[in-house]
Write a structure and sequence with these properties.
Layout (H helix, E strand, L loop, with lengths): L14 E5 L1 H10 L7 H4 L37 E10 L7 E14 L3 E12 L2 E13 L24 E6 L4 H5 L12 H6 L9 H16 L7 E8 L8 E10 L2 E8 L2 E11 L1
Antiparallel strand pairs: 1-3, 2-5, 2-7, 3-4, 4-5, 6-8, 7-10, 8-9, 9-10
């Protein structure tokens, strides 16, 4: 069957997930952190307390408990990750157990494609911990006469040079480290599989690029303090290849708010970026 618009509002079963110090350290090196970020990459440095990157929730419980199983049938090769947001209700602890529940919150008819939005809410001790919201774009699955949903420019940078700019070099092996945090899609590791997708070599995970972006925002705008990092959102616009350099440009647009883009040279790879912080 095609997509089922009645799936909006459906929820996955609640699942309990756990993580520990090692998981946080592995994620940190997976998004390129190193010896100048020992609070995130070590757990036993003298006088340094381990901390967790605010984008770590994107890998907690990876691939489990999704509500997307009820949205209908489609060709998974025609699905791409569209947008991603992470809202922190409090800092992520170095180790813990949380209950996750996913919900399909919207489905939009774009004519020749569809957009499906799902939110995953995490609670710890009956208190909110974080909310992840992701949208996927599925080619060939529109046309049922549903709402088109929001469109048009958003989080547009002002017409002036950025207030902050950070460039990180990714490693040619970066995807091989990042995949150990959960996403084992061979598109990011197997050259023959990548070739079937039209790429001459494996591409970097979009959420790895997202993690690099979050690192830059944390250090430039939040004083490297995860407790000050409240919300981040952005839209994926172009693939990244391991070994390419990522430049995050940031414009402060108000008290506790900034918009950003992430680019490889002149090619935007994340746009419509927004950070809220304290």
């Amino acid at each position: 069957m095609p997509l089922n618009p009645d799936a909006v509002g459906s929820k996955g079963d609640p699942i309990e997930v756990g993580w520990d110090s090692k998981d946080c350290l592995l994620y940190a090196v997976g998004i390129g952190a190193g010896t100048d970020e020992l609070a995130f990459t070590t757990e036993n440095t003298n006088g340094v307390e381990q901390q967790v990157f605010p984008t770590f929730p994107v890998v907690i419980g990876w691939g489990r408990g999704s509500a997307m199983g009820g949205i209908g049938s489609f060709n998974p090769a025609l699905l791409v990750h569209g947008q991603q947001s992470v809202t922190l209700h409090r800092p992520i602890p170095v180790e813990g157990t949380a209950t996750l529940q996913s919900e399909v919150t919207a489905m939009y008819d774009k004519g020749k494609a569809a957009v499906v939005v799902a939110a995953t809410r995490a609670t710890m001790g009956d208190e909110p911990l974080y909310t992840n919201t992701a949208s996927v774009f599925i080619r060939g699955e529109g046309g049922w006469g549903g709402e088109r949903g929001p469109s048009g420019p958003r989080n547009v940078p002002p017409d002036r040079p950025p207030d902050h700019e950070v460039t990180y070099e990714t490693s040619p092996d970066q995807a091989l480290v990042y995949r150990l945090s959960g996403d084992r899609n061979p598109l990011h590791s197997d050259p023959s599989f990548a070739a079937m997708g039209g790429f001459d070599r494996p591409i970097l995970h979009g959420l790895c690029t997202y993690g690099y972006t979050g690192r830059a925002l944390l250090h430039a705008l939040c004083g490297s303090d995860p407790a000050r990092f409240d919300h981040v959102e952005g839209r994926f616009t172009s693939p990244v290849f391991p070994g390419e350099a990522l430049t995050v440009a940031m414009w402060e647009t108000g008290e506790g708010e900034a918009v950003f883009t992430t680019s490889v040279g002149d090619r935007a790879v994340i746009d419509q970026g927004l950070l809220r912080h304290s």
